[in-house]
Specification:
The chain has about 80 residues and is mainly beta. Helix content is about 15%, strand content about 55%. The protein contains 2 helices and 4 strands; from the N terminus they run ααββββ. The chain has a 4-stranded antiparallel sheet with strand order 1-4-3-2. The radius of gyration is 13 Å and the shape is elongated.
């Protein structure tokens, strides 16, 4: 379950794009995952929100879940650039 959750966490910046991916490129420059317990079961979930500044720097913040509820958070630093 832990490996599965890390795979889901890595998709956070693509789950809620506020910019058109056909017009912008995104580089995930850092990822930090903090868990308050180990995940259990086969199902994982994510709720993400992305914010970008005018200087091309952004941040995605996500909550991570398993079958029993919240297990932690994920923060991803982003660099964005027009295509």
């Amino acid at each position: 379950p832990w490996v599965r959750l890390m795979g889901v966490a890595d998709t956070a910046n693509g789950t809620n794009p506020t910019l058109n991916p056909r017009e912008w490129q995104f580089m995930n420059t850092d990822i930090t995952v903090c868990l308050h317990r180990l995940p259990r079961g086969e199902w994982t979930g994510i709720v993400a929100d992305a914010n970008y500044g005018p200087d091309g720097v952004g941040l995605t913040v996500a909550r991570l879940y398993d079958e029993e509820g919240p297990v932690g958070t994920c923060n991803q630093a982003l660099m964005i650039n027009p295509l």
